[in-house]
Amino acid sequence: MIRVVDGDANNIPAVMSVMNDAFDPGFGESWTGAQLLSTLVLPDCQLLIAIAQDSVCGFALSRWVLDHEELLMIGVLQKFQGQDIGKLLLSETVCRARAAERTKLFLEVRDGNKAYDFYLKFGFLPIGRRKNYYKNAGGISPDAITMELNLQY
Ligand SMILES: CC(C)(COP(=O)(O)OP(=O)(O)OC[C@H]1O[C@@H](n2cnc3c(N)ncnc32)[C@H](O)[C@@H]1OP(=O)(O)O)[C@@H](O)C(=O)NCCC(=O)NCCS
Question: Which ligand 1 atom minimizes the distance to the CA of 22?
């Protein structure tokens, strides 16, 4: 059974393992442990972790900005992908944001990342594009697509 619980700085090594496994290293999407730590010390940030058999298999990191929530990052270990763990993490993020009366959940995703389809399926809508937002070693700089989920019923 998969459990989703609050995480904190003690979970950074486990979250970094998920991040290094889940994200394509070619696009500069993943963070370092130091970046994660500096975000986690902020009071408006939330880390959720998914636990399978006592170890972390996924995480979602979000932050509160005014009356909005922003999903900073979500990842699931490759061998656990396609088992609804991403959906579980996102649903819990939405549930908590609604309980705190946030009105919208925003995120940015690299143009070409398959996660775009995951977000579309969940109900997010594309609302904007930031040109050449991501960098990669091959000299290509993909755009970021901004997506929004309305949290008001
Ligand atoms: C994106 C990610 C978090 C999805 O997690 P997951 O656990 O594999 O997704 P789920 O099993 O919960 O899938 C939920 C739904 O999205 C769909 N989906 C998931 N990945 C998909 C993909 N690559 N293409 C199309 N649909 C996808 C599933 O089919 C499922 O649909 P359903 O509700 O109709 O059954 C995971 O693939 C991942 O870690 N990717 C790499 C890191 C990344 O790019 N993160 C996003 C940028 S921050």
Answer: 41
CATH of the domain at 79: 3.40.630.30
Number of residues that make up the chain: 153
Find out whether the beta carbon of 50 lies less than 6 Å from any atom of ligand 1. Answer: no
Q: Measured between alpha carbons, how far is residue 149 from residues 94, 105, 107 in Å?
A: 9, 5, 9
Domain containing 92: what range?
Answer: 2-107
The answer to whether the CB of 83 is under 6 A from ligand 1 is: yes
**What average pLDDT does the segment 39-45 reach?**
94
* Centre of ligand 1 from the C-alpha of residue 56, in Å: 17
β-sheet bridge partners, residue 110: 144
- CA 20 vs. chain centroid, Å, equals 14
Number of structural domains found in the chain: 1
The pLDDT score that the predictor gives to residue 135 is 76
pLDDT in tens, 75-105: 999 999 999 999 999 999 999 999 999 999 9
